[in-house]
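TEACHING EXERCISE
Course module: macromolecular assemblies
Task: Read the component lines below, then compare them to the predicted structure of the full complex.
Student: A.B.
Group: 4
Components provided:
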Amino acid sequence: MATLTAAQKRTQARIEYDAYLATCPSRQLLSTLGDKWVALVLSALAEGPARYSELRRHIAGVSQKMLTQTLRTLERDGLIDRDVEPTVPVTVRYSLTPTGHSLFAVVSALKSWAEQNMQTVLEARSAYDAAAGS
Amino acid sequence: MATLTAAQKRTQARIEYDAYLATCPSRQLLSTLGDKWVALVLSALAEGPARYSELRRHIAGVSQKMLTQTLRTLERDGLIDRDVEPTVPVTVRYSLTPTGHSLFAVVSALKSWAEQNMQTVLEARSAYDAAAGS
DNA sequence: CTGTATCCGGGCCGATACTG
DNA sequence: CAGTATCGGCCCGGATACAG
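Instructor-supplied answer key:
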C-alpha cells in the first residue's frame, strides 16, 4: 500500500535529516574537528613544518595508523601540504596551508573559551554529580 | 625484570598521554562539540527555551535516546537549565544558561568559518580525489 | 623513514519496549 | 509528555605485521 506506518515515516525523516546534515558545512567541520587527533596535528604544525616522525614523537599518544589517517584527511581537505623529498630514505615534510592556518585561528579561539570556562563547567559537573549522589 | 620492551614503553607513553588529554580543557570541549547532536541542541535552544517534544520535532533526525543523553550532558556541564513544571502530565522546559550562550557564540564563529571556507575545502577535496583516480 | 594491510575488541548509537 | 532499559549492528581506532 501507498501509506506508511508511523515507524516508517520516522525512519524516512531520519534518512532525509541525515542527508541534510551530511551537506551542512558546520556539521562537516565539527565532525572533522571532533576527531581525536585533528586539533593536535593542527597545533603541532602551527609551530612550523614537521616531518612524519617528528609529529609522531611530538604527539606521543598517537598510533601510526591514526596519524597517517589524520594527515591524509587534512591533506585531502587542503589544510596541510605534504612535500616529499626524494632522498634515501625518503623525507616527508608536512606544513599548514593558508586555509589550515585560518582554521587553526578558529581552533585557538575555541581553546581560549575552554581555558576560560572549563573551570566553571567542571564545578557545575561536580555539583550535578553530588546532587545525584545524595 | 625492571626493563621494558620497546612495545611496553610505547604502551606506557600512550596511557600517560591519554591521561594528559583527558585533563586538557580544549580536548574535553572539542570532544563534547564533536558529539553529533550537541551543536544542534545548542542552536535550537539559542532561539529560545523549548520543551522536550519541541526539540525532538525541531531536530528531526535525533532519536529519543540521543536527545535525552545530549540534554543530560549539557545540563551536567551547566550549559542548559532543565525546569520541570508539576502539571499533569509533566512539562519540561530546557533553556541555555549564560555559559551555554557564551559557548554558542563560539560555535557560531565556527559556523561562520565553515560557511566561508567549506567551498574551498570541497574543491581541494575534489582535486585530491581526481588526482588519485588518474 | 614513511607508510600500507589486516585483524579485532569496545563503544556509540539507533530501534524497540516499557514506565510514572 | 518525558523519559528509562535493553539489545544489537556498525564503525572507530589500537596492535601487529609487512613493504617501498
